[in-house]
Amino acid sequence: MTELNTRLGMLESHLARFRETGILNLINGKTLPALSGETFETCSPVDESLIARVAMSNAGDIDAAAKAAKAAFAGWAATDGDKRKAILHKIADGIVKRADEIAMCECWDTGQAWRFMSKAALRGAENFRFFADMAPSARDGKSLPSPNHMNITSRSPIGPVGVITPWNTPFMLSTWKIAPALAAGCTVVHKPAEFSPLSARILAEIAHEAGLPDGVWNLVNGHGETAGKALTEHPDIKAISFVGESRTGSMIMKQGADTLKRVHFELGGKNPVVVFEDADIERALDAVIFMIYSLNGERCTSSSRLLIQESIAGEFHNRLAERVRNIKVGHPLDNATEVGPLIHKTHFDKVMSYVEIGRQDGAVLAEGGTRVGDKGWFIRPTLFTGASSSMRIAQEEVFGPFLTSITFRNEDEALAIANDVQYGLTGYLWTNDVTRALRFSNALEAGMIWVNSENVRHLPTPFGGVKASGIGRDGGDWSFEFYMEQKNIAFAMGNHKIQRLGV
Ligand code: NAD
């Protein structure tokens, strides 16, 4: 409790300036309110109190930011790779220095527990360091000789890009998107989610203080339908890197069509964790719980569908229910808290509505499904058993601490159920039969699969989904593929015969 009070005291001092000035934009190196002077409120999901008022930007503000990004592009693109590397490392240093402030603000703004956010802030710094080190070689190409030509490929940054992020772990995700863009030599206009603007502002300040030239990184707050839409339609913005819901991805594709936007989408998921009877049950149980109840279940890669072999289902469900019952729901800044409040009322209502939907569809509510307290958006971690694949709780992304369990008899049935959704982001597989693991992973429709493991992100590997879960990949060189254009130059190596017309 003392620790919680100390943290609350520190949080208050971090928030004081935002209460006074509001959360403003950063355009061309200048801190600015929205052109209209309008603002909206951001409130804490912990107690619904006002955190600060936020600049409510629209197309005019986006236009100013896009023009600044366009003007800064030539200079930043021409900046030596080593210099870009040094600045990105300085940003990482700034993140480390302010990691506690970032984590506290993130907990208060999003409801995520301290135990996860304190690490997420530091992972944000690691994202910058990883791409900083890749900056000097970002443009490296290939030499692809053909019989008469020496083909030389090179890469160059695509131009000013738009980055649109969601409210779940917004800090970490923003660093993941913005760091490779800057390392590639692109300039950025970032539109963070309206429900979690705090850490995006801190991040932009850190970048500014690290010596990033004006206009290279612009922050514009606002709603998706106005500011977000304007960003996707702006002719000076060459590509949109978007993380959010699948239906928003569809809208962005339409909005960006007239200006032929390149898009990278990281969208929703309804990821299966498949547990076979030959698995290491202790480890599988830990991983099943961790992958749906950590981060409040507000995680695109959460294993929201448990597929459990019928022969072990009874015992597994009993042990699972007991552990879920013991999960500590509480104040996100408390060390003991494992699950905090959901981001906001609309989302809380959505998650709660699935409790009724699950019951009506005939699944068994084995745990949770109730509100905790009468202030803030806390919900008891929820477990439905006895579900079938056609039920809505087995098909739709709930995006909360909400697990749907379905039993299967054999491998074929498990695979059919696992693939029977519109999404295909991740899959988790628990078996000690290596041949089955290979066979199953090969047939599973997902962009990323972990075998006998929880989700552990390794930055050089490709991250992204198939089907309605996304288009494109992040990580390592895949990030540069998106943020850069390829150019091929073919040099004739001799006097090869050219077809002669009109002679
Ligand atoms: P959302 O789609 O509602 O909003 C995401 C962002 O898009 C916000 O900044 C919002 O303002 C903006 N936006 C909304 N409408 C827009 C429009 N018409 N044009 C341009 N921008 C617009 O998503 P959310 O509720 O904030 O986030 C949760 C979703 O994100 C979940 O579906 C989750 O699975 C997904 N997600 C996916 C990944 C991944 O890597 N695949 C990672 C994190 C979150």
Shape: globular
Strand arrangement in the largest pleated sheet: 13-16-17-12-11-19-20
Stretches where pLDDT falls below 50 for ≥5 residues?
A: none
In this structure, how is the largest beta sheet organized? Answer: 7 strands, mixed
How much strand content do the residues show? 15-25%
CATH superfamily of the largest domain: Aldehyde Dehydrogenase, Chain A, domain 1
Helix content: 40-55%
Proper CATH architecture of the largest domain: 3-Layer(aba) Sandwich
The CATH topology name of the largest domain reads: Aldehyde Dehydrogenase, Chain A, domain 1
Overall pLDDT metric: 97
Secondary-structure-derived class:
alpha/beta
User: What is the β-strand count?
Assistant: 23
| Cα-atom radius of gyration | 24 Å
* Alpha-carbon distance between the two ends: 92 Å
Number of domains: 2
Question: Could you walk me through the main structural features you see in this protein, from its secondary elements to its overall organization?
Answer:
This protein has 503 residues and is of the alpha/beta class. It has two domains: 2-267 and 469-487, Aldehyde Dehydrogenase, Chain A, domain 1; 272-451, Aldehyde Dehydrogenase, Chain A, domain 2. 43% of the residues lie in helices and 20% in strands. The chain is built from 16 helices and 23 strands. The protein has helices at residues 2-21, 59-78, 81-97, 99-110, 114-134, 170-184, 198-209, 224-233, 246-255, 281-293, 310-326, 345-361, 392-395, 411-418, 434-443, 476-483; strands at residues 25-27, 30-32, 39-43, 50-55, 149-157, 161-164, 188-191, 217-219, 239-243, 262-266, 272-275, 305-309, 364-367, 371-372, 378-379, 382-385, 402-408, 423-424, 426-430, 448-451, 466-467, 470-471, 484-492. The strands form seven sheets. A seven-stranded mixed sheet has the order 13-16-17-12-11-19-20, with helices on both faces. Strands 8-7-6-9-10-22 form a six-stranded mixed sheet, sandwiched between helices. The protein has a two-stranded antiparallel ribbon with strand order 1-2. The chain is globular and about 80 Å long. Nicotinamide-adenine-dinucleotide (NAD) binds at residues 164-168, 173, 191, 193-194, 223-225, 228-229, 232, 243-245, 248, 251-252, 255, 266-269, 300, 397, 399, 425, 465, 469-470. Nicotinamide-adenine-dinucleotide binds next to helix 8 and helix 9.
